[in-house]
Amino acid sequence: MDNIKIKTDAELSQELLEVARNGGTEAPFKGKYWDNHEKGMYKCAVCGTELFSSDTKFDSGTGWPSFTAPANLANVEVRPDKKFGMDRTEVVCKKCGAHLGHLFNAGPADKGGKRYCINSVCLDLETAEKKN
Ligand code: FE
Fold it and tell me: Is the pTM of this model over 0.70?
C-alpha cells in the first residue's frame, strides 16, 4: 500500500486548488519551474508522489515546465479531455487524481516526440540537497 498523504482543499493554495482540483491552467512564463534547470525529482504538490525527473525536462519555449516522459508510468495517468471544445489529452496524478497539465505530440523527436506540459504549481521539486 502506498503511504501517501493527500492534501485537503483547505491545505492547498488558491492557485493549486484551481489547477489541480478544477483543471485550470497557470499563466505561462509565471510559474516557478518553467525556466528551472536544477536536478532532482518533481513530485506532486498535492500528494508527494514522484512524477517527473529533471533528466526528462526540456526547454519547450511555451512557458510551462515540459517533460518527455513521466518518471514512473504507474504514477501518471493520461486521459482524453474534450473540455472547451478542444481535443486534448489530460495528464493526471494517478495517486491523488490531481490535474497536472496536458500531453502533446510536440516533444523532441529524438526523445520520443512527447511533451508533458505541466503546471509549475502542481509540482514540488526535490533536489538532492533538499533530500539530504
Ligand atoms: Fe498527487
Answer: yes
Determine contact, residues 44/6, Cβ cutoff 8 Å: no
Distance 5 CA to ligand 1 centre (A): 9
* 100 Cβ contact list (under 8 Å, min separation 6): 20, 44, 51, 76, 91, 92, 93, 116, 118, 119, 122, 123
Question: What distance in angstroms lies between residue 86's CA and the mean position of ligand 1's atoms?
Answer: 25
Using 70 as the pLDDT threshold, list the residues of the chain that sit under it: 1-2, 130-132
From residue 110, give the alpha-carbon distance in Å to each of 35, 64, 79, 86, 114. Answer: 21, 21, 24, 27, 10
Distance of CA 59 from the midpoint of ligand 1 (Å): 24
Instruction: Dig out the grid coordinates for 29 from the structure.
Output: 512564463
From the candidates 44, 96, 117, 122, which is the catalytic residue?
117
What pLDDT score was predicted for residue 124? 98
User: Is 117 annotated as catalytic?
Assistant: yes
**At a CB cut-off of 8 Å and minimum separation 6, what does 68 contact?**
56, 58, 107, 108, 111, 112, 114, 115, 116
